[in-house]
Design goal:
alpha/beta, Immunoglobulin-like, 5-stranded mixed beta sheet, 2 helices
Length: about 170
């Protein structure tokens, strides 16, 4: 019975160390590039207007237009246009041809298949709607414990398991 309790404490300790080590390795990797290039994501169909004009609007997650935001249009790795949104979040870029383009702002990046005038399928939209992501909020326990790389929360859980196992071993197993 004592051997089982000792193994329980060792297992809890190893689990705690494993949680801490995996977080440390992820933290050491640094911030990840959130660009969509190379990632698989849904491609949305948009019909270009006359003269190869792409029209779109940039809003936040609440639907509020984002004024004076920079919008970058890429074809592959080549930047083909950079523009700014107006006071209502609208932007427009002329001279584009059909193809798959990446449209970026500071807070979002999406892929669009642009169709030349009068060639778009019926499902194609008349313009691009970009929704700029707000702050990503992950589970947060008591402020700092759930933020950052999760070390605080992992240490709290692991410490609780370890102390509980030691106390049980000392008072019950001796």
């Amino acid at each position: 019975m004592k051997r089982f309790k000792f193994l329980h404490v060792v297992a809890a300790t190893l689990a705690s160390v494993g949680m801490l080590a995996s977080q440390s390795v992820a933290w050491a990797a640094g911030p990840q590039n959130l660009s969509t290039r190379g990632a698989s994501q849904q491609v949305l169909d948009v019909a270009l207007g006359n003269g190869g004009r792409l029209q779109g609007q940039l809003v936040d997650v609440g639907g509020v237009p984002q004024a004076n935001a920079e919008v970058t249009v890429r074809l592959g790795d080549t930047v083909v246009a950079v523009t700014k949104t107006d006071e209502r979040g609208y932007f427009s870029v002329a001279g584009l041809r059909g193809g798959v383009y990446e449209i970026n702002t500071q807070g979002t990046s999406s892929l669009y298949r642009l169709w030349a005038a009068n060639t778009a399928p019926p499902s194609a939209q008349a313009g691009a709607l970009l929704v700029e992501a707000g702050d990503v909020v992950r589970g947060n326990l008591f402020g700092y414990l759930g933020t950052g790389n999760g070390l605080g929360l992992a240490a709290l859980i692991g410490g609780g398991i370890l102390i509980g196992g030691l106390v049980e071993h000392r008072y019950v197993g001796s």
